């Protein structure tokens, strides 16, 4: 047994001289080590000697030994989460130490085993009601192994759910703010005599070899839906409405066969509320949503659609009625907090609409139109002051010296507003003009590169003896032909 351990340690130590090894030699040595670890005696890995090593210097032996010890404790206690695995246990400490100090360049060879280990600590932390203990270390581990955070794994939804449970939203942002662009497929077949490993087709982790496992067979449509739903909820908690709308739009736009899932319906309900909070109206539904799916959403989320209709029509009495009648529904859907924020958003957009109609009005006038939550003039003044300081609204509050006169709210003069809009339009036109200039320049360069200019095509037509080239009719025939060529090119581009 001692000789076997020494052999494993020796092979592991050689990997740190990979700067002096060719890519193929490094891949071969690391595959050989993994193959030995998988064939090793169960008692050899579960003995504890390998987990006394440095996790960075011996990442692969440490990982396999740690998983073997966890499996041994689970078998002995007949529990999926024994005490040693939970926070405070011996194996918990070893796992945290490993995730913080591992050699990330070797993890892409044992991706399935690494995911299994992360899932263990996530479940253990949730089991004892302390999800925060696993959230930070998981976030750091993901970024350590995959700095781009673009690879979706089976534990991503669980990680976001624990971020929500622990209200540690900031730890999810480094992962959420990156775009998911890759999934580990289970259809990659390793070449013969490659020990079950293939070279990665993407540029992940310096193009080291990647294990062709069946890990992704566990990834389902539901996992992706939950990930973006939880992501939208995290953005909602941070009041980042645009990002929340984006995540929820992905949830409601996922392809369906016959009927929409419950997760997609929950996403649509939240999408309706976030649309009102961000835009003051329902946002345009994504174009990829089919008609029958849109109808299903409308039918299954009818109370939310009715609430949005009252909001858009500016009927605060009906809005209050719809909100009161739907309290059991909001509570059951865990959307009560969002509905409560609807009234403040209603008042905010009301003030913005009044500003586009009136040049000045009293706070009492606004109070008559506002929701019951903003009935006092003091509340209105606080709201307007908040909008002005956040530069959402351009207006002035005028408080007269005599208390019997109400506070006046003055909006900018129409000339100033039109001048500002004109400046914005001018800047937008300049920006688009510059973009078109760059596009035209690029098209000209491509025409010269591919010999698609007028002179080149004219010369080609003359060489091939096409009719309508000579004489004064050349220009007319040439333009007609060019139009056809350009139309074909644009068709290919489209």
TrEMBL record:
Keywords: Cytoplasm. InterPro entries: COP9_N (IPR055089), CSN3 (IPR050756). GO terms for cellular component: COP9 signalosome. One of its GO terms (biological process) is ubiquitin-dependent protein catabolic process. It holds the Pfam family COP9_hel_rpt. Residues 48-291 form the COP9 signalosome complex subunit 3 N-terminal helical repeats domain. This is Signalosome subunit 3. It comes from Aspergillus homomorphus (strain CBS 101889).
């Amino acid at each position: 047994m001692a000789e076997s351990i020494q052999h494993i340690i020796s092979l592991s130590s050689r990997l740190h001289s990979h700067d002096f090894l060719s890519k193929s030699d490094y891949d071969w040595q690391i595959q050989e080590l993994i193959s030995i670890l998988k064939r090793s005696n169960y008692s050899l890995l579960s003995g504890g000697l390998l987990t006394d090593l440095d996790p960075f210097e011996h990442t692969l032996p440490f990982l396999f030994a740690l998983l073997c010890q966890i499996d041994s404790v689970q078998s002995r206690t007949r529990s999926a989460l024994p005490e040693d695995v939970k926070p405070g246990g011996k194996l918990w400490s070893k796992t945290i130490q490993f995730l913080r100090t591992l050699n990330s360049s070797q993890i892409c060879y044992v991706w399935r085993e690494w995911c299994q280990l992360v899932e263990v600590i996530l479940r253990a932390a949730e089991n004892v009601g302390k999800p925060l203990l696993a959230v930070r270390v998981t976030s750091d581990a993901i970024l350590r192994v995959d700095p781009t955070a673009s690879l979706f794994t089976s534990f991503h939804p669980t990680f976001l759910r624990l971020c929500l449970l622990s209200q540690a939203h900031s730890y999810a942002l480094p992962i959420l703010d990156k775009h998911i662009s890759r999934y580990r497929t289970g259809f990659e077949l390793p070449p013969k005599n490659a020990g079950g490993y293939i070279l990665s087709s993407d540029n992940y982790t310096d193009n080291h070899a990647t294990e062709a496992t069946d890990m992704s067979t566990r990834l389902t449509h539901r996992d992706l839906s939950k990930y973006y739903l939880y992501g939208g909820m995290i953005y909602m908690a941070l009041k980042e409405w645009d990002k929340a709308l984006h995540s929820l739009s992905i949830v409601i736009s996922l392809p369906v066969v016959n009927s929409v899932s419950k997760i997609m319906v929950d996403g649509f309900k939240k999408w309706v509320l976030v649309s009102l909070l961000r835009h003051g109206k329902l946002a345009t539904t994504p174009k990829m949503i089919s008609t029958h799916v849109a109808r299903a959403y409308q039918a299954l989320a009818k109370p939310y659609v009715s609430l949005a209709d009252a909001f858009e029509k500016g009927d605060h009495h009906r809005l209050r009625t719809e909100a009161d009648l739907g309290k059991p529904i909001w509570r059951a859907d865990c959307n009560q907090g969002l509905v409560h924020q609807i009234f403040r958003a209603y008042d905010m957009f009301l003030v913005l609409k009044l500003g586009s109609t009136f040049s000045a009005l009293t706070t009492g006038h606004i109070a008559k139109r506002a929701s019951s939550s903003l009935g006092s003039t003091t509340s209105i003044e606080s709201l307007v002051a908040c909008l002005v300081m956040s530069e959402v609204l351009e207006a002035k509050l005028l408080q007269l010296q005599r208390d019997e006169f109400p506070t006046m709210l003055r909006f900018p003069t129409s000339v100033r507003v039109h001048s500002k809009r004109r400046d914005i339009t001018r800047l937008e036109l300049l920006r688009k003009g510059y973009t078109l200039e760059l596009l035209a320049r690029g098209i000209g360069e491509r025409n010269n590169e591919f010999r698609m200019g007028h002179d080149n095509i004219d010369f080609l037509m003359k060489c091939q003896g096409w009719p309508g080239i000579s004489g004064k009719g050349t220009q007319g025939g040439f333009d007609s032909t060019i139009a056809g060529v350009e139309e074909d090119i644009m068709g290919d581009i489209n």
